[in-house]
Amino acid sequence: MRINIETAELQAFIAVARQSSFRAAAEGLFITQPALSRRIENLEQALQERLFDRTTRRVSLTPAGELFLVHAQAVMEELELAVKSVEQRMAQRREHVTVACVPSVANNLLPQVLKRYARSHANVRVRIIDESAADVLESVRKGEADFGVNFIGAQEAEIDFAELTRERYLAVMPTHHPLAAHASLNWKSLAGEKLVSVSSSSGNRSLIDNAFSRVPQRPVIQYETNHVAGAISLVAAGLGVALLPELAIRNAPYKGIVARPVTSPVLSRAMGLITLKGRVLKPAAATLAQALRDAISTRSGK
């Protein structure tokens, strides 16, 4: 048998039972007394039981009403709990942020930023796409990431690129390397050195190749890796010198390496926050983006 009872009728019944008054219950529900009476009548018809004894002086529950009140209150409490659970679940599903960034940012900057961010956004789920510069750009372009931190994208028509800092490249070498005795190096001093380099598909590599194109005698790339971490490991093993962005080696967990700035000219890259043009970040993403801006600004001394 289909139960033809509306929640408004249950609310009306519970209100009258608690107030022992149709007038007070109607005022509490912000409806008229005739409307309240119709709800009670509909409920009694559905149950085929009288729920209240009504006199000119008082309203009281019948035995059937007392029995039904226990279950009606339980039903409304369960319904409220169900609604709140769904609201909380949907809120948690809505509160998520995807940030794309190059590995140097993901490894050396993002962890501390997220640690602080989690204190005020404990329920926000964060997905990190830590890939190459080209992949980071593509993630933002496709809408997979809310925003990215990258050193390419400034020339893309559909991308907004907000520069955060300029990151210089350093020559990384074993501590016993002859060039380690110098406070800084020029490009000519690297001529003839065996280099450890990231792969030719890397955005880092294109910047380095462009710089070496202006040097009469360029170093020999002896070892090539896909990731900066691999290059650092080879340098630590004494296999050569690597030109790497400063952020990538700032907190590198390796012993036996040193880094020296390279001048004449200084090689650097613009690190920026990239978003899809015209996209407005949701609050949780905007807060994380600002936290990254502040962290980079602090490290850069701005």
TrEMBL record:
<dbReference type="InterPro" id="IPR005119">
    <property type="entry name" value="LysR_subst-bd"/>
</dbReference>
<feature type="coiled-coil region">
    <location>
        <begin position="69"/>
        <end position="96"/>
    </location>
</feature>
<dbReference type="Pfam" id="PF00126">
    <property type="entry name" value="HTH_1"/>
</dbReference>
<dbReference type="Pfam" id="PF03466">
    <property type="entry name" value="LysR_substrate"/>
</dbReference>
<feature type="domain" description="HTH lysR-type">
    <location>
        <begin position="5"/>
        <end position="62"/>
    </location>
</feature>
<protein>
    <submittedName>
        <fullName>LysR family transcription regulator protein</fullName>
    </submittedName>
</protein>
<dbReference type="GO" id="GO:0005829">
    <property type="term" value="C:cytosol"/>
</dbReference>
<dbReference type="InterPro" id="IPR050950">
    <property type="entry name" value="HTH-type_LysR_regulators"/>
</dbReference>
<dbReference type="GO" id="GO:0003700">
    <property type="term" value="F:DNA-binding transcription factor activity"/>
</dbReference>
<keyword id="KW-0238">DNA-binding</keyword>
<dbReference type="GO" id="GO:0003677">
    <property type="term" value="F:DNA binding"/>
</dbReference>
<dbReference type="InterPro" id="IPR036388">
    <property type="entry name" value="WH-like_DNA-bd_sf"/>
</dbReference>
<dbReference type="InterPro" id="IPR036390">
    <property type="entry name" value="WH_DNA-bd_sf"/>
</dbReference>
<keyword id="KW-0175">Coiled coil</keyword>
<keyword id="KW-0804">Transcription</keyword>
<keyword id="KW-0805">Transcription regulation</keyword>
<dbReference type="InterPro" id="IPR000847">
    <property type="entry name" value="LysR_HTH_N"/>
</dbReference>
<comment type="similarity">
    <text>Belongs to the LysR transcriptional regulatory family.</text>
</comment>
